[in-house]
Specification:
Layout lengths: L1 H7 L4 H11 L1 H11 L3 E7 L4 E6 L5 E4 L7 H8 L8 H12 L3 E6 H9 L11
Parallel strand pairs: 1-4
Antiparallel strand pairs: 1-2, 2-3
Helix pairs in contact: 1-5, 3-5
């Protein structure tokens, strides 16, 4: 599905049906994040490494990669339940990339290291 979205630049009704089957209510929440333009990609130079921040409902940014999200739901649901694949923030980032639906912010590699090691992403206990 993601490859097809990348090729076409859009999510078809068939794609939505498949995604709904896989992700259930998480899909709707993820699409709302994309529509609200709450995703920022930070791309480091010269390495090209990236991470994403997804603005939460109380304007708190969650650090997000394909393997991790700093939200509580990731820890309580994705890590602890074998049937959960992604939290809504991760799924939003996954879908936003082939659609080019994110803000791009270029940073240095040093800024990337500082950003991903900040405590603001580690200690926040909030359900979004």
């Amino acid at each position: 599905v993601i490859c097809r979205v990348k090729l076409t630049g859009q999510i078809s009704d068939t794609d939505l049906d498949i995604l709904q089957e896989c992700f259930g209510s998480t899909l709707k929440k993820s699409l709302e994040i994309i529509e609200a333009d709450l995703i920022t990609c930070y791309k480091a130079k010269p390495s090209g490494r990236m991470y994403f921040e997804v603005e939460g409902s109380q304007s708190f940014p969650y650090l997000c990669t394909s393997d991790y999200c700093s939200c509580v739901a990731f820890t309580k649901t994705v890590i602890n339940k074998p049937d959960a694949i992604y939290c809504k923030h991760q799924l939003a980032v996954l879908l936003a990339q082939p659609l080019n639906r994110f803000k791009l912010q270029e940073i240095t590699d040093e800024q990337l290291v500082i950003a991903i090691s900040k405590d603001k992403h580690k200690d926040f206990k909030h359900y979004d």
